[in-house]
Amino acid sequence: MVKFIAPSLTIVFLTLAAVKAQSPIVIANFPPPNAIPPTNSTEVQAWIKELGDLSGAPNIPLRSGAPPECANPPAEDECNWTCQQCPADDITACSAPNTWGLTFDDGPSTATPTLLDYLKTNKLSATFFVIGSNVINNPDTVKREITEGHHLASHTWSHNALTTLTNEQIVAEMKWTEKAVMDATGLRMKYMRPPYGDINNRVRFVLKKMGYIPVDWTGDAFDTNDWKMPGVTEDQAVTRFTKSLDDYVASDKAKGFYCLEHDLNAGTVALAQKLIPLGLTRKINIASVAQCEKDAEPYQAGSTAPMPTVSGVPPPSKTSGPGGNSTDSPTSGAITAAPNAAGLMSVAVAAMAVAGAALV
Ligand SMILES: *[C@@H]1O[C@H](CO)[C@@H](O)[C@H](O)[C@H]1NC(C)=O
Ligand SMILES: *[C@@H]1O[C@H](CO)[C@@H](O)[C@H](O)[C@H]1NC(C)=O
Ligand SMILES: *[C@@H]1O[C@H](CO)[C@@H](O)[C@H](O)[C@H]1NC(C)=O
C-alpha cells in the first residue's frame, strides 16, 4: 500500500511546487511589443475558447483614431466615457473619504525605480496600471512593486484605444498582459484602466467576461497633465493640480478621487514627487485602488502566489510589505501557499483518499 501511495504523494507535492513557481519571462514567447497582438495564435485562440461566447457583446461599430475622436453621434447604449462622460458601472472615484487614490499608468519604465524609492521613503502604496509590453522588459520592477506593497492592475498590452479593437483583439491585449504579470509575480490582475479612458459598453462586456473591473479617473480636474509635459511645464501642472486639491478640500470629501498620473519618464516621476506632498500637507490620505475599495482580494482566482494583504492604511515600508519576504525559507513559502494552491491541495488530498480507498 505505502509503496503505491508514496509515489503519488511525491507527484502531488511536485504538482504543488509547479503551481507555486512562477515561470521566468521568455520575451520570445510573447507577441511583439507595442503592437496589437495577433488573434490567430494558439494562445489567443485558446483564451477566446475558454471565455466562451462573445457574441452577446453589444453590437457597437468599431471606432477609429488614437485616441478616438468624438465627432459622430454615439450608437444607442454605447455609453462611452471619454466623449459622453458615461461611466456605466466603472469605478470613477475612490470609495474611501478624504483619500487620493494614487495610480500610475504606462509603466514599468526605467524611471519607475526612482518613484518606488520615493514611495517607500514616504510609506505610500499606489496602483500601477502596467502595459504588458513594458512588463516583459522590466519584470524585476513589477516584482518589486508587489514586494513593496503596491497593487498591480492592467493597462493593456499595446496601449491602443479599446473601442477601436475587435472583441478578440481586446482579449489578446488583456490576456497577454495578464500572462506577463502572472509569469513575473504569480498574480492574476483584476482591475484595469482603459488607455485614454476609452471604453464603451462593448468593451465593458468583453472585459467583464475576463473578470476585469475598469477604473477610470475622477474627471479632468484630477488629470495631472503629466503626459502633456514638456508642452505643459512642471510649474503649470503643479499650479493646476494645487487648485484641484484645494477645491477637493473645500468639498464634503465624502468620496475620494482617482488621479491620472504616469510612471512614464524622469519628468513625470519628478512631477509626482512635487504633487504628492501637496496632498499630504492637506491631510488627504493616499491609497492604492485595492485600499480605496477595501478589496481584500485585489487579484483574480487563478493566481499562484499568495494573495497580498490589503489593509485600510498603506503598509509600513520598513518590512517587505504584503508580498512577504520572498527569500524566506522554502518551507514557509509552501505553508503560506495561495488559497488557490490550498484549494488544489484539498482536491489533491481528496483524490488521494479516493485513490487510497480504491487501492484498499
Ligand atoms: C496569423 O495571421 C497572419 C496574417 O494573416 C499570418 O501571417 C500568420 O501566419 C497567422 N498565424 C497563425 C499561427 O495562423
Ligand atoms: C463616444 O460618444 C461620442 C458622442 O458622445 C461619439 O461621438 C464618439 O464617437 C464615441 N467615441 C467612442 C470612442 O466610442
Ligand atoms: C529576508 O529574510 C532573510 C532571512 O531572514 C534576510 O536575510 C533578508 O535580508 C530579508 N530580505 C528582505 C528584502 O527583507
UniProtKB/TrEMBL annotation:
Region: Disordered, residue numbers: 298-334
Pfam family, one: Polysacc_deac_1
Residue span, NodB homology domain: 98-289
Gene Ontology process terms (BP): carbohydrate metabolic process; fungal-type cell wall biogenesis
Signal peptide range: 1-21
The entry's keywords: Hydrolase, Metal-binding, Signal
InterPro entries, per the entry: Glyco_hydro/deAcase_b/a-brl, NODB_dom, Polysacc_deacetylase_ArnD
Gene Ontology MF: a single term: metal ion binding
Biased composition range(s): Polar residues: 325-334
Protein name: Chitin deacetylase
Organism: Mortierella polycephala
Classification of source organism: Eukaryota, Fungi, Fungi incertae sedis, Mucoromycota, Mortierellomycotina
Gene this chain is encoded by: CDA2_11
